Structures are given as C-alpha cells and as structure tokens.
Amino acid sequence: MTGRSTPVVVIDLADPGLDHELYWQCLRLRRQVFISALGWNLYERQGVEYDEYDTPAAVHLAAIMDGEVLGCMRMLRTDNRQGGTTYMILDAHLGRIPNLPSGLLDEVIASAYAWEASRLALSPRVPAVGRNALLVDLIRAGMEYAAERGGHTLLGLMNPVFERVFRRAGLKVCRSGPILSQRDGRICVLRMSFSPNPDRHWCAA
Description:
This is Acyl-homoserine-lactone synthase. Its EC number is 2.3.1.184. The chain is α+β, with helices and mostly antiparallel strands. It has one domain: Gcn5-related N-acetyltransferase (GNAT) (Aminopeptidase, 3-Layer(aba) Sandwich). Helices cover 25% and strands 28% of the residues. The strands form two sheets. Strands 1, 4, 5, 6, 7, 8, 9 and 10 form an eight-stranded mixed β-sheet that branches. The chain is globular and about 40 Å long.
C-alpha cells in the first residue's frame, strides 16, 4: 500500500529505543482533542489522556511534520485479552464501557488477522482542507502495519460519513454493525479490508 503524503512513525511501548517525547505528544494531543475540545469524560493526568488499552500490547502511529505530532492513532489486535479487557470496540459492544453504546457489531470479531484502530486524533493546527487526507494517511499506515504482521482487516469506531471519505480514497470499506447515536452524533464500526487474497475480503466490492 502506498500513497501517504504525511510521514507516519510507529511508537511501540515495547521498543527499548522508544522516543518517549513522541509518545507523550500523542497523549497530550488526545487530551486536547477528546477532553478539551469535545468534552469527553475521560481519565487525564499530568496533561495527558490515557486509558486501560494503552499497554505494551498496543502500538501508536504518529503523523509528524517538523517534529510535531499532527495526528495519532492507537492500534490493538482484536484477539487481545488482558485482565478484564479485550479491545475497545468489543468491550463497548458487550456493554462494558458506559460512555459508548452497546451492540456495535453484527458479529464478534476476535482474531489475529483483525486489528482495531482507536483514539484517532488530529491536531487543530491541521487546516480543514487537509484533515481528511491526514486521516486517510493514518488509516493507510495502520493497514500497512497490520498487513506486515499477517493482518487483513482494520476496525474503527467512527461517524458513518467517513465510509464515503475512505471509499473516495480507494480503500475497501463497509459497515460492520448498525449506525447508533451517542452524545456527539451518529457512530458505527467501519471495517477496512486489505488482504491480497480476495477470499479473505469481508467487504463487498
């Protein structure tokens, strides 16, 4: 997969050479977007936002320009099991996350071949004309990361309008459950398929 216009780096908490400043920039951006701008009731401490899914099992992708994180996204394999959590979409689907609606999925997905993309945040410094392009860059980078590890599916909890955005960018995408309502508007699970084997595509052409 190619076509990204913004450099995207992988931040792996298990990497002994981790650039901690980039990681903290991601968490600060998440606080700025989700808590300060959107008013979500999320945990914060020391100017950053993080939750129970920010463990060494997750990796973070950061779109960087001139040393500044302009966008970030968390990646977690859907067969994740640790303590009482799985991954955010499935836990919400099962009614375990009070701030999100349940019944998000039309089938339970827990596979080494499927990854979740969550906590996708874009800096307010990104101009409106470039926001969708940066979003697509992050999603493409997530697909590439998963594909390199045998994955063929990426799940994201988003406003359904992004299905059209991704289709226009040439991505293979479909909804993987109902469109539901929450405080910030409509939401659904979008499933992006990128296996080179057509038999593994879950989304119709």
